[in-house]
């Protein structure tokens, strides 16, 4: 049933995309994203999608209602099935000019779940061109306290990442600090500009 539903959603998405007039109308919860590189074991920010990086393309991520899960295992106890799932979930979408052209772009965050504690955040950047979303770039960040994603946003035409500082980590899950890096769009990719900055996480 799911493949049929997916096919219908893809067709509906194609119709809706053709009628869109701004990036804010794109339904990123029901959307297809490219994917490449290893899914786990990350300890830094890595830009993806360039054939020169040596990573092979993976099966694309097809989000349906915000997730793309696959059952990895299951067992039955007292007549009830207990299953474990792995895959991607939609975490957020924000809008800001990250290319310096004065137009809003979309910053989409997806999270890869393993059925365990380790996770990976993937961040996708889309502009809006000729009535359709256009992928600018995408990347993954580290795992939790090891440069995992804290914040990502646009500021005066530049792209800003704040990643959890491994030097201030409290176990594998948490850190009290972050490392801020800035990127500028050069027309084909995001280029690191300036030196890293360091800060302390906001309180609850």
Description:
With 204 residues, the protein is mainly β. It is built from one helix and 14 strands; from the N terminus they run αββββββββββββββ. It has a six-stranded antiparallel sheet with strand order 2-8-7-6-5-4, with no helix packed on it.
Q: Give the low-confidence spans.
A: 13-18
Number of helices: 1
Q: Globular, elongated, flat, extended or rod-shaped: what is the shape? A: globular
Tell me, rounded to a whole number, the average pLDDT: 87
Query: Helix/strand/pairing class, anyone?
Result: mainly beta
Strand order of the largest sheet: 2-8-7-6-5-4
Q: How much of the sequence is in beta strands?
A: over 45%
N-to-C series of helices and strands: HEEEEEEEEEEEEEE
Number of strands: 14
**Sheet with most strands:** 6 strands, antiparallel
**Which bin fits the share of residues in helices?**
under 10%
The termini sit apart by: 43 Å
Q: Nearest-angstrom radius of gyration?
A: 18 Å
